[in-house]
Amino acid sequence: MVGALARVPATPTGQVPFTLVTSSPHLSADLVRSGDPARTTFADLTTIRVGGPVGTFVDATTSEQLVDAVRSADADGRPLLVISGGSNLLVGDDGFDGVVVHIATSGLRVDGTRIHADAGVEWDLLVRTALDHGLAGVEALSGIPGSVGGTPVQNVGAYGASTSDCLESVTVLDRETGEVEVWDYARCGFGSHRSSAFKYTDRYVVVNVTFDLQRSDESAPVRYAALAERLGVRIGDTVSAREVRDAVIALRTDRGMVWNEAEHDSWSVGSFFLNPIVEVVPPEALGSPQFTDPKGIKLSAAWLIEHAGFSRGYGADFGTGRVTLSTRHVLAVTNRGGATAADVLALASHVKAGVLQKYGITLTPECRLVNCSLD
Question: Domain check: are 177 and 291 in the same one?
Answer without folding.
Answer: no
